[in-house]
Specification:
Strand order of the largest sheet: 1-3-2-4-6-5
CATH superfamily: Uracil-DNA glycosylase-like domain
Strand content: 5-15%
Helix content: 40-55%
CATH class: Alpha Beta
Shape: globular
Oligomer: single chain
CATH architecture: 3-Layer(aba) Sandwich
Radius of gyration: 15 Å
Bound molecules: iron/sulfur cluster
CATH topology: Uracil-DNA Glycosylase, subunit E
Order of helices and strands: HEEHHEHEHHEEHH
Length: about 190
């Protein structure tokens, strides 16, 4: 059921022209993973590699995200990965507010279909559009927010960890917190690796 609804939504998004990013994209990057995942990772938008392949987090940052997930017992078959905007902002710039506003309804629909219990915001842009504009990732990462039944945690984007190794210590703490929260509220779940 979730898979059918996600597929229907994916087909709709594939033809989307709601914002100007449709003019420069190669592929729409809808998202991927387990349609019944209890843990969902949300980034800001596709980069060059993602745009070319039409899949989320497949470049260097994606490889690191894979390792981060594996370190706490998850993989792409047990979580769901998506972005705030589904088309690449040119030059990897931040998505503009009007682009995010045009696109975020798709993410809301994905969340409504998948119904994750835990949402991890990867980086400042993701956290701001999900939790509020006053979020500062260095100050607010690692703090849980319980919103409308979801447990939401902002943490560093893997690209930030590639740029600055010193951030990895805090990122590791956040990963352990994600695992602990999962074990606390999702124990016995069908989606564990
Ligand atoms: S970024 Fe989102 S709203 Fe804009 S064209 Fe792509 S799918 Fe549509």
């Amino acid at each position: 059921m979730s898979l059918a609804r996600l597929t229907q939504l994916k087909n709709e998004v594939a033809a989307c022209t709601r914002c100007g990013l449709c003019k420069t994209r190669t592929n729409v990057v809808f998202g991927e993973g387990n349609p019944r995942a209890r843990l969902m990772f949300i980034g800001e938008g596709p980069g060059r590699d993602e745009d070319l392949l039409g899949r989320p987090f497949v470049g260097a940052a994606g490889l690191l995200l894979d390792k981060m997930m594996a370190s706490i017992g998850f993989n792409r078959n047990t979580v769901y990965i998506a972005n705030i905007v589904k088309c690449r902002p040119p030059g990897n710039r931040d998505p503009q507010p009007d682009e995010a506003a045009a696109c975020i309804g798709y993410l809301r629909s994905q969340v409504a279909i998948i119904k994750p219990k835990i949402i991890v915001c990867l980086g400042r842009i993701s956290a701001r559009y999900i939790l509020g504009t006053d979020i500062r990732i260095t100050r607010d990462r690692g703090v849980w927010h319980e919103v409308k039944g979801f447990w939401i945690l902002p943490t560093y984007h893997p690209a930030a960890l590639l740029r600055n190794e010193a951030l990895k210590k805090d990122a590791w703490r956040d990963l352990l917190a994600i695992r602990a929260k999962y074990d606390e509220i999702c124990s016995g779940g069908a989606n564990e690796s």
